[in-house]
Amino acid sequence: MDEVQTIEAAVLSFYRGGSEQQKETHKWLQQVQNSPQAWSFCWELMQLNKSSEVQFFGAITLNSKLRNFWVEVPKEAHHELKQKLLETIVVFGNGPKIVLNRLCISLGLFIVHMLRHPTVIEEVTNMFLLEQLGNLSKVTQIEILMAVLEGIPEEVKNVRTQIPREIVLQELNRNAEFVMQTVVRYLNEKLSQTTLETHDMNGLINAAKCVGTWVAHGNVRLDEREATVQVLLKAIHYCYWKEPKDDGCLLPEENELAETALKSLTSIISSYATQNAKYSVTVINFMKMFLDVLVPILDAEYKENNDNENLALMIYALFISTLECFSSAIFDGIVTESEEVSKVYTRTVDMLIKCTDKPGTYPVDESCSTYAMEFWYMLQEEVLAMGPSRHKIRCLEAIRPVYAHVVKVLVRKSQLPTESSLHKWNDDDLEAFRCYRQDIGDTLLSCHDVLNNQMLDVLSEALDESIMYLSYDSQSTENWTLLEATIHAFCSIAQKIEYTEHQQIVKLLKVLNEIPYEKYNDKLFGMALETVGAYSEWIGDNPKYLPSAISLLVKGLNSTKASQATLGLKDLTSECQKEVVPYAVPLLDACRSVLHDGRLKNAEMIRLMYTVGNILSVISYDNIIVYLDAMVSPCFEELQVHVQNNDISEPTKARVILRLDMISKLFSSLNIKKTANETEDNKISMVVGGQKPCFPAGEEPVPGPAPVQPILLILEKTMDLLKNLCTLWMHDETVVDTLCKALQQALTNLMDDIKPLLNEICFLVLSILNNNCVVSAVDIAGNFILMFYTDMEYRPMMVQLFTAIMDYNFNQMQMNLDKLSRIADLIETFYAFNTKIAKKLPICYTHIQVDYLKLMDYATKCMMLPETGPMKKSVSFITMFVKESINNPAMVQVVMMHGENIIRTTFLCIGGTALRTQVEIFADIFLAINCRYPQALIQWMKVLETPNFPTAFVSATEKEQFMRNVIKERVSKRLVQDYVRKFAALCRNVVEYENNK
């Protein structure tokens, strides 16, 4: 008794105490729940004189014991346990609800454990049906029965029993029809009554849920589910139409029953999804039933701000799910001789057009229109997937008018909210609408696949209409939204538009340059700028429209939409790099002017430097030097001032990072060799094509010395500044990381041309590695090593870099041995670096004195980290090291010495340390060792023979089977991954239900 009082006090303390106290109490209560004594005290806690918190703890304790500790119940106690369960259910039959629900789940668990007895479900069901449970009302007993039955299939998924899995599933399938008939009979009886009492609703809701959970069992054909489908539709029809509602809104219990019935209908359909062709006639019949019963509800709810929006959503979801599962059956109606199939298809399309065109603005006035997007993708995919045939041509002709109409609807629905309506929107609404517009853009791409060039005609008409609407009331400042939405539609399909000089695109660009943007919301200008950027590739193929595009984007640089302007210029100068040469100087002047003005945000300034690099790459060398001096010098001059002042304040740090980011972005795009090589490639292609370039006699050009890459010039002049800057900010990882990224961009573009400064840059990186080994320092050092290690002139420096990386990381891991998660990013980078070395340059490990044992020991420890990045990189390194070790005696020795520990740790990870969703990666280790050291693997795998290793849930037989499976498989990664995943489930006492269906 004292023990029960202690537990009672602890439960009350948990619910009413502070967070720290709760943490300790929760831990203690879990231990109590797991104790064998819990079988006794859980009943004492579930007494009517206890508080609801204590009663609930007693119920979840019983639930936990039944789920995880069934082995503790002797066979002779099974009947007594069932009786206690039923008696306690009677006690709590009228509440509290949270306790009763747990008891229903517990009875379902008990039934699952007892499924070896073939009549257990029938016996329990008949007890409730025949009202054999004390003084509970018939309505309550039915409600409880339906809740218990509903939970049984769910518990089969989640609990391991002593009964073999195959028998459990056989029993579930054998009992399915009895359960379904019981449930459907009950639903029909109740729904056939003239009126339903309010207290009947919970039983009906539980019954409808029960249908959804049992429908996947029983091995019954879909066409034999018609009675079930009819009764569920009957429930929905009853809830919606039974009587007029004053406010138009269903009562909560009516709404729940209707929605539950819809979920169960969806479950029925999806359960047969893999048998598409087999049930085409049945599905057409079901779709006709859905259309007859549910579309009138949708029609009644076809308005803004309707009160039953979620019900409408679920109806649309049922239709979409049916189409996803049985698309070919329904889409046969596009062109068919069958009037019935044709009518179902036509009615479905009409219904989904109305869904797309739901009145109001998403998501503030309506929530349904987004559901139809998937249908328009499915329909075009189904038709376009047909092989070349007259049937396909007829289908395309039939659906094109539909898609042309849908395009106009989507343009209208994608209109942005006006300033006067924004008061109705919150941040979540705006984000939802942003995603909705993206979905519309994706759907327009599907429409283009059907309409092809006709799409431009449709959008051109929409453009004319939006301009007319704009001019209809020239004084209004809020009639811009339709034009903006039309431009957005053009922007969305830009990637589909080929190089042809389409007059619709010419008209669009003309309109974009003529709109008086100053009169309207700046979002209209922003969309225009984004669209010009999106058509950069087309403009590259039609360069005569380049001046107007540049003019608009330059105008945008001096506006509130500079972000879109800088993005557009970045795209334009990338796609039209050679074509931009005639306009390069004024464009550079515009960039210099706006950078000098200081109106741009940091991200815009950084992005603009990419454009500057693109343009500088194609102009004359003399001009490059002039503009570099004018546009890049201010960055270095500002950095020089900060260094001279020894200024390490936070405002200065922000400026330093900005300037380094700007330099980095310039380095990523400035490359005169790239454009020179493209020109040379063009000459070669002319020769190959039979058009050898002609030169005047004696004037064929003689190759001269290539000019120095501008990035190299910049680095030569600023190397001392960068060293001083690095020294000043060595304590700050963010600044050092940004500097390393700039140097990495320089290396990426210069490649071998970096050699004149290679030693200097390497010394700079080396100083970083020795003081503040940031992630990007390891990245650039690794790239230097991979590029220049085989060059004997630079090998000594590469060895120094390699050694510095190893020493720094080893020291950091040693210092943080008990808390490696603190340096997770560093570990991830370190082992990614070593994986590259092991794969591409394993000779490094031969030439350089590396403590292989330490490298492998730390990798093994890092496998067990909770962070995914370092865990994956460590596994990749071990895998690659094992594969490459065969050519290096020292590496072989490490694998042989450390192999058993690797396997032991791998099992610990599979058993519970690693996330279950990540365990498949450990298959790589087994495959690598089995490939290179098959005999050793057999020996090392014997660690599994240790009792309760890696967990107590996996039996010796299961371990032996896993060992045999892994050892015999040396090729198929997929198979080993499958073995590992299933073994992980066994180790964690989790049932892989989906693989046993």
Short description:
With 997 residues, the chain is mainly α. The protein contains 46 helices and no strands.
Task: Give the arrangement of secondary structure elements.
Elements: H1 2-16, H2 19-34, H3 38-45, H4 52-68, H5 78-91, H6 97-113, H7 120-129, H8 138-158, H9 165-191, H10 201-214, H11 226-241, H12 252-271, H13 280-300, H14 309-325, H15 327-331, H16 339-356, H17 373-384, H18 390-413, H19 427-451, H20 454-472, H21 481-492, H22 503-514, H23 522-534, H24 536-541, H25 546-557, H26 562-575, H27 584-597, H28 602-616, H29 621-631, H30 633-644, H31 650-669, H32 672-688, H33 710-728, H34 733-750, H35 755-771, H36 775-788, H37 795-815, H38 824-840, H39 843-847, H40 852-862, H41 868-885, H42 889-913, H43 923-932, H44 934-940, H45 956-968, H46 973-987
Describe the structure.
- This protein has 997 residues and is mainly alpha-helical.
- It contains 46 helices and no strands.
- The longest helix is centred in the N-terminal third of the chain and has 27 residues, at 165-191.
- The radius of gyration is 36 Å and the shape is globular.
- The two termini are 46 Å apart.
